[in-house]
Records
---
Amino acid sequence: MVTEALRTDDELMASLGRGDGASLGELVQRYQAPLVGYLTGIVHDADRAKDLAQETFLKIYRHAGVYRTTSRFTTWLFHIARNVARDELRARRRRPQLCSSDEQVIDATAAAQDTQVEALERREVVLRALGQLAARDRVLIVLRDLQGCSYEEIAERTGLALGTVKSGLNRARQRFAERVAELD
C-alpha cells in the first residue's frame, strides 16, 4: 500500500477527483510556498499572493475530476496560477483609484499594471517556448541562462564534453528564439 507521504501528484489528483479532500491538503503542503512566491513575483503583493494561491487551490479542487496526466501536475498548477494572477492584474486596471486625486499617480499606476500584464504574458511565452524544447536544450538553457552555471559546471553536471555544451547551448538558444518568435 502506498502511504500518503509517498503518493505522486498524479495519484493525489486521482484521489482528489474521487472526493478525497485530504489529498488537497497534501498538495497544498507541497506547493503552497513555491506558489505564493511565484504569485508574489507577479502581483508584487505577498498578502494578495496568498489569497491568489488559495484561489488557485480552490480551482484545483473544483476541477480535479477533469485533470489528465498528459502533462506534469506542476505545469497545470502554475498555468492555473498564472491565469489567476492575470485576472487579478486585469481587475486592478479596471478598479478606480479612490485614494488619489492626482492624475499623474493614477496614470503611473495604470502604466505599471500594464507593464505587469505584459511581463506576465512574456513570461508565459518564455515558459511555453522552453516547454517545447527538447529536454537537453531546456537543461542547457536553464543551467546557463537561468541558474548562471559556467560552461564547466554544466559539463560536469550533464556529463557532456565542454565543446558539446558550448555548441549545444548555441543551438538550443537558436531553437528557443525560434519558438519564442512563433509564439509571439
Note: The mean pLDDT is 83.
---
Amino acid sequence: MNKVAIYPGTFDPITYGHIDVIKKGLKLFDKIIVAVSDVENKNYLFNAVERIQIVKKAIFSDLKLSKKKVTVISFNTLTTDVCKKYKSNIILRGLRAVSDFEYEFQLAGMNRKLNNNIETLFLMSDVENQIISSRFVKEIVKLKGDIKKFTTKSTIKSLKEKYE
C-alpha cells in the first residue's frame, strides 16, 4: 500500500524551506502531492499556472527529484477534499518558528473537524532554512538582493523576470 501525503501551500515562490519539507516527507511517505493553492482571496505574485511551473522546474529540473515520488497539482478546494481525491489521510505542513505554530495548530484542528480521519504531520526545515519565507524572498529580489541561499536557480530566474 502506497502512503501518500498532501503538502498544501501557496508556494509563491517555492523556497529551500519548502524543499526541505518535501525531501524529509519523501523519507516517510511513498509519494508527496505538492498541492499549490489557487484560492482567490490571496494576493499572489505569480498566478497558479506560473507557480506550478516554478515548483515543477525547482523540484524536477533543479533538484532532479523523481516524478514517481512527487506530483504537483493546483487546487481551489478544501485541503481535506484534496486528501479524499488522492486517497491520503496525511497533510504535511512545515514549521519554521514558534510564531507559525498557533496558525498551523488551528488549521490542523479545523482540518481534523472537517475529516477526523486526517492527521497533520509537522516537519521542520533544516536550521539554515528556517528563517526563509516566500515573502522575504520576494522582498529581497525586489530590492535587487542576492537570494541564491534561499531558492533554486530556476525560481530565481522566474522572480527576476517578474520584477524586470
Note: The longest helix spans residues 98-114.
---
Amino acid sequence: MLGELIEKEEIKYIGIIPAEQNHTKELQDKLLSAQRLGNEFKSKCEITFNTKEGPKTVFTTVWSVTEEYLQLKSGIHIPLSSLIEIDF
C-alpha cells in the first residue's frame, strides 16, 4: 500500500489532484482487470490515487472505467489522471 488507507465514502470529501506522472496508459490492463473482478466476481482491489494531502489508498470494488474516470459504488468517481497504482 502506497498511501494512507481511507474508506470509500471519504473520497468525496478530499481534494483529488492529478498524479505527478499520468499512469493511465501503463495501468490500462489493470483498470480493465479491476473492472472485470468487480463486476464478475465482486472482488475488491487497492486503488492508490493522489490528493492535496498526499497519496490515499482505498480498498473497494471497481464498477466501471471510462475514458476519464474510475467509477466506484455510490456514484463515486476517481479521475484516471490521479491514479498512482492498482493492486489486486
Note: The first helix runs from residue 28 to 41.
---
Amino acid sequence: MNAFSRRGACPALSAPMQTGDGLLVRLNPVTGGLAPKSLIGLCESALRHGNGILEVTARGSLQIRGLTLESARLLAVEVDALGIEVRTGVPIETGPLAGLDLQEIADPRPLAEHIRLAIDEAGLTQRLGPKVSVIVDGGGQLAMDAVTADVRLTAIRTDEGVRWLVAVAGDRQNATPLVMVEEDAARDIAVAVLRMVAEKGREAHARDLTERQLTSLASWHSVPPPSVLPDISPARGEIGSSDAVACPATLVVGESRDESSISPLAGEMSGRTEGGAQDRLPLKLSEPIPSPIGPFPLASDITALGIGLPFGSMPAQGLIDLAKQASELGSTEIRLAPGRALLFLGLSPSDCSSLQNTAAALGFVTSPADPRTRIAACPGAPACASGRIATRDIAETIAAENSDILDASLTLHISGCAKGCAHPGSAAITLVGGENGAGLVVNGTAKALPAGYRPGYDAARGVSRVAAALRSARHSGETAAACLARLGAAGVTEAYRQE
C-alpha cells in the first residue's frame, strides 16, 4: 500500500483515500456478508487503527474512517487474518438477499459471476475507471431499483421464461433500455458495453456512449420487452428488434464522442414517446422503493432483519454490541444492504423482535418510517476537519422536532462543507457549512451558492421555521416536496432566516 486513491475514486483496502478525518477505506466481502464474529473482529480492528466510526454507504459498502497510512496497513493485515475476502475489480453488484429470497424472479449470482470472469478474460479491469459498475438484479423483496450503474441487468418473467433486460447509465427509473435477452446474451452485451466504455478512457462511463453504439448493442434481440406506459420512454429513437440472439455484424467500439453522444440528461425519461414503446424498460414508477429496514421472510420460519445505521454511521462499539446479541440469537450472517443498512440472517420472527429492541436501545434505525432515513448527513464537525458545522447534531435535532415534514417525497441533506460527500446529488433542502455558518440551498447540491445563512449552532431552528411554514401552507394530502415547490426558493429562504 504505497499510494492514496484520489477523491472520486473507490478507496479500497489497498488504496485508502484522504478525507478530512484521516484516511478512509471501503470494502465489500466477496460473499456479500460477514459472520457476526467477523464483523466484531473488524469493528475491534477499526477501534484500534481508526477513529472507531464505521459507515454503511448508500450502495451497501462498509467504510472505516480515521486511519493513518501505517494503521491502514495494519488494518489490511488484520482483515486478512480474519479471513475476510474483499472484492476487487469492477463492482458487479447483486441484491442483498440474492439467492435467499423466495420472491426472486431469478438468482442473479451465476450471471454476475459469469460477467466477472468475462471481464477478467477481456482484461478490462485496469482499463475502466473505479466508478464503473454493473448491477445484476434478480428482483424480490429488496430489488436494486435505486442503485445507479453503468450496466443494469434486470430479471423479467415472460411467457418463454426468465429473460434479462439490459439497460445502461442509471437506476431502474432513468436507465436507458437496450434489449431483453437470455442469460448468455445478457453477459455478452454487458461486456460489450464495458469494452466500449474502456475505449473512451478511464474517465468514461456508459452515459458517454454514442447513439450509434447503443443502436449496435440493441441489435442483440431475442424477446421484445413487454408494453409499458408510453410517457416513460427515453429521449431516443425506436430500438429495432430481430428474432434471433446474435452478435451484430458490426459492433462499434472505438467511437469518439460527437454530436450524437448522449447528452448529460440522456437516460432520463423524457415524458414523451418517440416510437417503439413496446421496447421500453418496464418501470414501476408508482411503486415506492423498498426500504431495507424491517423483517423479510425467507422461508417458513426463517427471517432476515434489516437494521439501519443512523445517517449511515455508527460507533464501532455499538456495532459490536449488536453483532454479539445477533450471534446469541442464532444469526449466521450479516449482509450489507444498499440504503445504509445491515441484514441479519437466520433469525426466527421472535428473535427479530428481540434484536430490534436491542438495536433501538443502541440508537440504530429499526423502522422504515424513522425520520432519520430522510436525512443524509456526513460526519461533519468535529469528526471531520473539513466540516464547518456539527451535521449529525443538527440532523438529530431536526429528526426529533420536525419528523412530520420528513415524508417520502423529501430528502434533507446536511453537509459539513461544500464537497457534499453524503449526498452528491440534488436535495429538496441542503444545509452546507461554510465561513458564514450554515447555508441553505433549495433544490440543489452542497456545491451550489446558498441563498441564505444562519449560524451553524442555530441551523436546526432555521429548518424548524421552514417546517412551520410548510405546516401553515400545506394542503390536505399534499406532499412536503410539492408544498416546498409552491413556496418557492425565495419563500423557503425567507422562512429559514426568520428569528
Note: The longest helix spans residues 480-497.
